[in-house]
Structures are given as C-alpha cells and as structure tokens.
Amino acid sequence: MRMGILGAGNIARKMAATIGEMEQVEAYAVASRDLQKARAFAQKWNVRKAYGSYEEMLGDPDVDLVYVCTPHSLHYEHMMLALEHNKPVLSEKAFTMNAKQAREVIALGNKKKLLVAEAIWTRYLPMRLVLDQILERRVIGEPHSLTANLCYPVKGVKRMMDPALAGGALLDLGVYPINFAMMVFGNEIESIDSSCIKTDSGVDESNSITLSFKGGKMALLHSSMLSTSDRRGAIFGSRGYIEFLNINNCEGINVYDRDYNLVETYKPFKNITGFEHQVEACRKALEEGEIELKQMPHSEIIKVMEVMDTLRSQWGVHFPGE
Questions:
Q1: Is the peptide bond before 42 cis (omega within 30 degrees of 0)?
Q2: One fold for both 2-121 and 126-270?
Q3: Which residues on neighbouring strands pair with residue 30, listed in sequence order?
Q4: Burial, 187: exposed, middle or buried (Cβ in 10 Å; 0-12, 13-18, 19+)?
Q5: Which of 118, 127, 135, 195 has fewest C-beta within 10 Å?
Q6: How far apart are CA 173 and CA 311, in angstroms?
Q7: Count of CB atoms situated within 10 Å of the CB of 199
C-alpha cells in the first residue's frame, strides 16, 4: 500500500518514521503548500515523491491511501478534497470540528464506496484488545464506573489557543478520555454534565466531564492544557477494579480484586511507534473492500463528535464558520 501524507508537520514525521519500518506499506508521497518543506520532508524520511500542492498529490494515481494530518479545522476540507479525487482517507483526530462535518465526510465516502477512517490510535493498539478480554472474563464483575484523565502543559502551542484552528483542550486531549469511556461502556450515553475554564481567546483550557451511560454506568473525565497528569484510567467493578496506565498510549494494565490485591498484570506489546496498527487496519480494509474499520466504525466517529458538540454547546465554545 502506497500512502500519501497530506501535511508535513510533527505528526506527519511520526507517521513517516512508522511506515518506514513497515513491510507492506510505503511512505510514497508527501504534500505541503510549501514545496521546499515537502522536499525537505521527503528527503529526511525517504519518501519517494514531494508535492507543493495537495491537489497535485491527490491526482497521483499511485496513491492508495491519504493520511490527513493538518490542523483540526482543516480536516473536513482536506478529507472532502481527497474523497472528491477518489482517494480513501485516514484522518487524524479530532476527525472534524463537529458532527455535521463528520456526517458529510462519511456520507461522501459511503456514496463513493471509499474507506473513511479516524486515526485515534488508542482504538487500534493491541492493549485495547487485552482490556476487552479482561472485561469479557468478568474478572472485576460488573463494571459500574470509571475515571480517565489526560493533561499536558501545552498552552504555549499557538494552535491550541486559536478558535480558528479548532483549538482547546477538548478536541486535542479530551477526545482520548471520551474514547476510553466509550470503549468500556459503549455509546448509549443518556446524559452529559460538564464544566470548563476558558482561555481569553474563548477555547477550553481545562474541563471536567461526567457521562452517564445506559444501565447506570458513569464516567468521570478530565483534560487540560495547563498541567501534567498521570494519564490514568480506572474501571471500578462489583468484584474489583482495573488500573489502565496511560490512556493515551498504554504502559500497562493492573487488575485488583475487591480486597485490593493485585491479581493480574499486563505489559504492552512491542510496537514501532503504535501508529502501525491503524495503518495496518486500513491496509487490510482496502484489501478486503471495506469502507469503515471495525476498531472505529463510522457510528462511533459520529458519536464522539456529537458528544464534543454537546460539551462545547454547554460551555459556549464555538469555532468560526459554525
């Protein structure tokens, strides 16, 4: 599979480095609005072709999959552009700015029978399957509640503060605790309660979220761009609890019984960077003619965006053009 990378920023570099170590995938092309930047990127990461416009790369018949890794505010535009050029897409999270955009992208992909996927890597990591299996075995009994947090001191990053770039903690960081909660409890959310502290520019810098799920299950979530957190998830059940170390890139899972005794422990599998799992999922889907991924189906992509729309509505956070 030959991948075209749309955008040449930090996350594009991580993706190119990942693909460089994969056997059945090639970092074939990179596109930037700045040709010199694209050429420098291609030379450093051993990418075969460099383009100074997105349209030019999308017109290359040898590009099998387009990886969109521009700012959040541009994901919709660039995915639609790729699909209009009949290219399958894998877009970085947050998938779009809002659910309306997500529905439109997915509708176009369905119409054209093209793969549309979200690169929320925690959905694809092998440790997600380990967690699923622990829950299925009912080691902690019935799970009733969970907590999850993700905070990094990134307020100094310009795009995080800019509403025009869909900035704020929620779309960049809060999306991970939300996905963690939905991976455990599903997507039947009955109520959403929240609060946030906003920056002078009008985006959320810290937030607190409570999701109530069908069956009386509750998730307490937090994200912030002000501080460093332990990034932990914890799932509390009738016969014990699970400690999930780093919801952003699992470093281990510990399982405790009701007497707080450690009964099971798991360490992560060796990865290239972790990005390879979402790429491989796309490769297999294309090979099999699928247009969505089982790890992050279209219904889940839209539901996550709907949750974040509701949260921003509660906070009075709106992006230009909405």
A1: no
A2: no
A3: 5, 50
A4: middle
A5: 195
A6: 14
A7: 21
Cα–Cα distance measured from residue 278 to residue 93, given in angstroms and rounded to the nearest whole number: 12
In the block, tokens 């897409």 appear at: 89
Q: What are the boundaries of each domain within the chain?
A: 2-121, 126-270
**Whether the predicted model's global pTM rises above the 0.90 cut:** yes
CATH for the stretch 2-121: 3.40.50.720
What class has domain 126-270? alpha beta
Q: Does residue 76 sit in helix, strand or coil?
A: helix
Give yes or no for a contact between 203 and 161, defined as CB atoms under 8 angstroms apart: yes
Token code pair at residue 83: 């699909």
- Partners of residue 254 on adjacent β-strands: 243, 265
